[in-house]
Amino acid sequence: MKLKLSRKQAKNLFIQAQGLNDPEPFGKGPGATVRAIQHLGYVQIDTINVIERCHHHILFTRIPSYRRMDLRLAQSRDKSVFEYWTHALAYVPTTDFKYFLPRMKAYAKDPRAWFRSVPQKDTRAMLTRIRKEGPLSIRDIEDEVLKEKDHPWESRKPSKKVLQHAFYCGKLTVSERQGMLKKYELMDRHFDWEHPPKTPSLKECLDYLIDRALRSQAIVSLDSICYLRPKLKADILKRLEWKVRRQEIRPIEIQDLEGKAHWISTSLLDQKEPEPSELLHLLSPFDPLVIQRKRLLELFDHDHRFEAYLPKEKRRFGYFALPILAGDEIVALIDLKTDRERAKVLIQQMTWLPRKRTPALKRKLEAELDRFAKFQLAKEPGPLSNKFSFIK
């Protein structure tokens, strides 16, 4: 028989799996950054910098003592994380590198439309140049003829597409970021593996996706495991059924979601049910709790819309609205903007959801905004004071 859970129970398990019900779920120091990425499976990278870029924001939400340098050290010195595509460009634990080899080889064999225009001779020449000169960024390459852009996201430098193509094929990796400027290095030289990882089987890759989702979500569905990869659903379902027969996972029903199949790890059922969280978090729109909008709506009754790409007159909550998670509820949205010249974090718009605002929540939010502003504006590690006054 299927185990039945209330939505509140499901939410609390999800919040715990996301590392959001404990003030320091991954500990302190540089090692906490790696532990967080290993647990979550990946942390999305995004270029928007209206406030803190989302990879730093996601980690700061779960690591109160987080420093941006911790991520840089993990990528460039310890090499315990690397960049690659999950559902978007992301930081991924290096321990999981082998599971991305099939996608790298697929890119090399059949480049996507974006890269089909890259001549193989240009890729070979770029690899040779990096082998001789060391890691290169797009700014280091000055000896090329600029061209007109065919796409808004394209560069006038043809070398940018060459570097990206070699990156997706697994020939190059990002060895360092200076802000958002990427340095590309030869993959093998960067990691200097004594024994390079071997390509796993399809079953191993499917199990990796399932296990990653179970660890970071607690309760999984086909949609949540195969987010933006719907072609995998048939194969994933077969592996889920196999794991049920082996009693590794168990099918469950969630209140009000009875028509949708969910699964939970049997080992999690042996653990004590998590206590409801009393914490308040300002979540990035790209936070792993938020990014799967359908799941967020099902569990939290919040239909989050990212409005940065909408015309101003069509926005309801603001250009870069952050969901505010208090306990197990989305209680408000706040649109922030960092004015770096004046060293202020500005409240552009504050929207409390119906019947959620209380004096206690307001005090918690003010404290969290102050903490967030100090992280935004401080030259590490010095603190700054940036008190807020609320818009009614």
Short description:
The protein is of the alpha+beta class. The chain contains 14 helices and 13 strands.
Protein model, in words:
This protein is of the alpha+beta class and 392 residues long. Helix content is 36%, strand content 18%. The protein has 14 helices and 13 strands. It has helices at 7-17, 30-40, 54-62, 68-76, 101-109, 120-133, 158-168, 187-191, 202-217, 222-225, 233-245, 266-269, 293-300, 359-377, and strands at residues 3-5, 43-44, 81-85, 89-93, 172-178, 181-186, 219-220, 249-254, 262-265, 280-282, 321-326, 329-339, 344-352. It has a 4-stranded mixed sheet with strand order 1-8-9-7. A hairpin with a 7-residue loop joins strand 8 (249-254) and strand 9 (262-265). Helix 2 crosses helix 4 (68-76). It is globular, with a radius of gyration of 22 Å. The termini are far apart. Mean pLDDT is 93; it is low at 381-392.
